[in-house]
Amino acid sequence: MKLKINNLSKVFGDKRAVDGVSAELTNGVYGFLGANGSGKTTLMRMLATVSRPTSGTITFNGEDITKMGDRYRDVLGYLPQHIGYYRNFTVEKFLYYIASLKGIEKNEAQQRVAELLEIVNLHDKRKVKMGKLSGGMKQRVGIAQALLNDPKILIVDEPTAGLDPKERIRFRNLLAKIANDRIVLLSTHIVSDIEYIAKEILIMKNGQLIKKETPRNLLGQIQNIVWSVPAEEAEIPSFQESFKVGNIARKPEGIELRIISEEKPADVAVNVPVNLEDLYLYYFDEGVGA
C-alpha cells in the first residue's frame, strides 16, 4: 500500500496552514510531530477527507482519494482531535451507531464491538451513558470507533490526550501490533507516544514538513548538542536566559541541567545521550526558558 501526498497546501484567508507538503507513506506507524499550530491537524483532516486541500493531491495506491469517494472511506479509520458524542447513548449503542454509519452488518458489528471494548478496556462500561464517562474513557471510545471497520489507513490526531500513563502505553502497543498490514498516522506533540513505535517521524513547523526520517537518524543529527551541566541554584536563571534548558534535576549531589545547545554551554558541560524530547525542544523551543 502507498499513500502519497503531493505538494499539498491549505490556505485560510492569508494564513497557509499547510504549505507544500509532500511525502510517501507505506505500511507502518508514522509519527507527525509538531507544536500547536504547526499544521498537523489540518493535514490530518485533509488525509481523512474532512477538509479539501487548496492545492495539491493525495493518492492511495495511485488513485486520487477525492475520486475514490466512499471506496477510500471504506478503508479509512479516523479519530479527530475533538470528537462529538451523543450524551444519552451508552458506549455500546454509540459504537453500534457508528458501525451502522460505516455500513458494517449487524452480526459483524456485534462481534467487532465486543472485541474492541476488550481492547480499549471498556467492556465493563458498555452500558454506561457517554455523558457519564471521564475524558479518558471517551477518548478510548473514540479509538474503538476508529478501528470498527478494521481500516487499512488509520489516522489518529492527538489520540492519547486525557489518557493516563498506563492507558497510553496500552494504546501505543495496540498501534504497534496492528501496523504491519496498514498505514498508521499518529499526530502528536507528546514525544513518548512515538519514540518506540514510529517507522519514521515527520516534523512539521509553520505548516511545512521540515524533516522525514527514522527516529535513529533524527537523533543522530543532534547527538553532539545535548549537554549535562552541574550548576548552582543562583546560576539557573542565567542558563535559562542563554540556552534551551530541557530539564532541571535536583539530585543529592547537586543540581544538574540538561541543555540543548550547538555550543558548549560551560567548561564543565559534558555530552549525554539524546532522546526525542531533546529533538522536540531543538525544533520547538517556545517558552522553554520561561
UniProtKB/TrEMBL annotation:
CDD domains to which the protein is assigned, alphabetical: ABC_drug_resistance_like
Keywords per UniProt: ATP-binding, Nucleotide-binding, Transport
KW Amino-acid biosynthesis (keyword) present: no
Superkingdom classification of source: Bacteria
Coiled coil regions in record: none
Keyword Cytoplasm included in the entry's annotation: no
One annotated GO molecular function: ATP binding
Domain ABC transporter intervals: 3-231
Family: Belongs to the ABC transporter superfamily.
UniProt name for this protein: ABC transporter ATP-binding protein
